[in-house]
Amino acid sequence: MRRTSASLVAGTLVAALAWASSPSTPAVALDPSAGVADLTQDLNQILSDSRLTIARAGVVVKSAESGEELYATDAGKLLIPASNTKLFTSAAAAETLGLDYRFTTSVLSTGRKAGKVLTGDLVLRGTGDPTMLAEDYDALAARVARAGVKVVTGRLVADDSWFDAQRLGNDWAWDDETAYYAAPISALTASPDKDYDAGSVIVAVAAENGKVKVTTTPDTGYLKIVNRATAGSETDVLIERQHGTRTVVITGTVADPYQEWVAVDDPTAYASSLFRESLARHGVKVLGRTTTGAAPKGAKELAAHESMTLGELLVPFMKLSNNIHAEILTKAMGRKAADQGTWAAGLKVTTDFATTNGAQVINMRDGSGLSRRDGFSPGSIVQFLSAVRGKPWFDTWYKSLPIAGESERFVGGTLRSRMAGTPAAGNVHAKTGSLTGVTALSGYVTSADGEPLIFSIMLNQYLSGSPKDIEDKIAVRLAQFSRASASGEPVELRASDPGPAGDLECSWLKPAQC
């Protein structure tokens, strides 16, 4: 998963060296030097963009070394952070769970084995692993078969009790229910790909011999497919799961191959169906039905699978802004800290960690930022980003942030197509955030003088297309900042085109469109 390039290595070395170690509108210079005065003037000008006239904009810039505030406007205002929320969730997870934390998925038996017959139940127990693929469930089934089990007289029990039964996050929009970036959360789940989009299935269509063929990844009978699409001269197709069901209805016309990531209705049932199908392929017959429940005490382990470490998971989580990883880690923190795999317990862990590390103006409703009731002030974000620099896990966490202008998906992430060819490219390490009417960018940048800076940009309630170019202009100007010189040379950015991804993280749209 982790990819490198010459520019990334060089940038990382420079960044590692650089990072060792009240509201006012319009903002005024907080340092008497000409460089800071020019920076203030330029940022004020960037924020005077007409798209922000009716909007709310909070921006804070601080020196990481001295802690001095170089620029601030609406620093203490509570704004919707979108996926900037993941800064807090990921850091709290690194602190609470540790970078070596792994999820475990295991197969247990509740009865006695006599020859090839297991008298009793077979239990599939999960702890929330979002990286489980169909092939991993198949490997578990193969191990059961290699243990000599051919018949299970009892049931297949899906044990998802590590987390509670609340599947959807607080305040999530009803019309996001079938979207893979709002998939239901469970301690047993499965991903269709190595982006690890847990709780979803890829549904693909293609025109063949005048008809529309439908396939799924993984190949599973869990979904009921109703194919009403027809072959045509253009691809204009809708793939949609019906509310509260396993039924996916496909309508429209298909000319070129097309695919959609669709959230399942019940990730526990989905995962257990994949496992049962794998058992059958390996010659293991389970006579009883599939049900849910906690494994009884004394159940014996037949097979187990461990995930990658949290330190490794941070890369797809943060680079691609994966909502489901955020929510699973939130419940995992609740289980670790309070023996409760709930949103309430996990959010308390994150909130306590955030406030202890300088974030005083916060309101957390979920771990990902999908809730519109999440709120942070840009000042709190900057204080938090400053405080975590001293943590032993900071270097790994810092490298997991998207990097401006780096084209590799697992390097540049949601910033890979932004600020390329500017002083910010390979320099800005920051978390993006996008919802309709909301965009945010918060993180770290090294100035032209080699001074490490921390910044947070939060734009809310605009009615235009996404003004991410304003964020980019500010970040580029910070990369040009010098205390001793006048304004940096203006850099012409690529024209802003929000397109279909304008109000969502680009990696939330599949295939990635940025």
From TrEMBL:
Q: Does the keyword Hydrolase apply?
A: yes
The gene designation is: dacB
Q: Which PANTHER family match?
A: D-ALANYL-D-ALANINE CARBOXYPEPTIDASE, PENICILLIN-SENSITIVE CARBOXYPEPTIDASE A
SUPFAM superfamilies given in the database record:
beta-lactamase/transpeptidase-like (SSF56601)
GO function term, MF aspect, one? serine-type D-Ala-D-Ala carboxypeptidase activity
- The protein here is known as D-alanyl-D-alanine carboxypeptidase/D-alanyl-D-alanine-endopeptidase
* Native source species: Nonomuraea longispora
Where would one find the signal peptide in this protein? 1-29
Instruction: Give UniProt keywords alphabetically.
Output: Carboxypeptidase, Hydrolase, Protease, Signal
Pfam family membership, one:
Peptidase_S13
Ranked from the top, the taxonomy reads: Bacteria, Bacillati, Actinomycetota, Actinomycetes, Streptosporangiales
EC number(s): the record gives 3.4.16.4
